[in-house]
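Budget justification aside, the reviewers requested a transparent look at the raw inputs and outputs of the sequence design task funded under Objective 1. We therefore reproduce one unedited record. The lines immediately below are the structure tokens for a 192-residue chain.
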């Protein structure tokens, strides 16, 4: 019976997120005017929310002292984009305590009423040891879009922060061999 309830919960979550993806562009705050903004050298904005483990996390306080890759996505199908950056980063630096990775799914505030369903669905698909590093933000994210120069909410965005929380590199979409190399080289440079 519990297994059937879990499957039902996954189905409901999947349907709600699929609907959210279709509607994300038309919802208020989801698609600001196009912004070409160079944010490298700027501090990462303060974002406070709960991790999948239930802990309150504040960025960039949580990243203090570590070179950190922060991945932001607005739609579920951006996960493969995030994975294309995170997998090589973790492969290279995963066992080195000087590095950290966080994912921040940003979900429109209209979905906050069923956040427990969405988070439960995510917990089911993410290894427990990574729950502290997935921090779901529910709310008006248009201010973060502007401050981080995020133009297209259908893409994933990745930010490499130095030990003081300053953005040192930015990427978007799927990693390509050249952009993956630039990310890894930039991260290595920050600990030398």
């Amino acid at each position: 019976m519990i297994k059937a309830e879990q499957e039902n919960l996954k189905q409901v979550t999947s349907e709600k997120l699929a609907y959210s993806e279709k509607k994300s562009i038309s919802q208020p705050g989801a698609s600001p005017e196009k912004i070409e903004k160079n944010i490298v050298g700027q501090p990462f904005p303060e974002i406070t929310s709960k991790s999948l483990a239930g802990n309150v996390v504040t960025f960039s306080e949580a990243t203090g002292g570590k070179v950190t890759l922060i991945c932001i996505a607005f739609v579920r199908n951006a996960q493969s984009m995030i994975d294309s950056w995170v997998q090589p980063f973790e492969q290279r630096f995963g066992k080195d305590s000087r590095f950290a990775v966080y994912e921040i799914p940003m979900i429109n505030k209209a979905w906050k009423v069923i956040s427990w369903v969405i988070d439960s669905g995510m917990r089911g698909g993410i290894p427990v040891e990574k729950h502290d590093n997935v921090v779901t933000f529910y709310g008006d994210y248009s201010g973060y879009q502007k401050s981080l120069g995020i133009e297209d909410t259908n893409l994933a965005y990745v930010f490499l922060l130095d030990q003081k929380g300053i953005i040192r590199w930015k990427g978007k979409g799927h990693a390509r061999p050249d952009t993956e190399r630039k990310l890894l080289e930039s991260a290595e440079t920050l600990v030398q």
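The domain at 2-27+41-190 is CATH 3.40.30.10 (Glutaredoxin). The chain has a mean pLDDT of 80. Computational costs for records of this kind are itemized in the attached budget.
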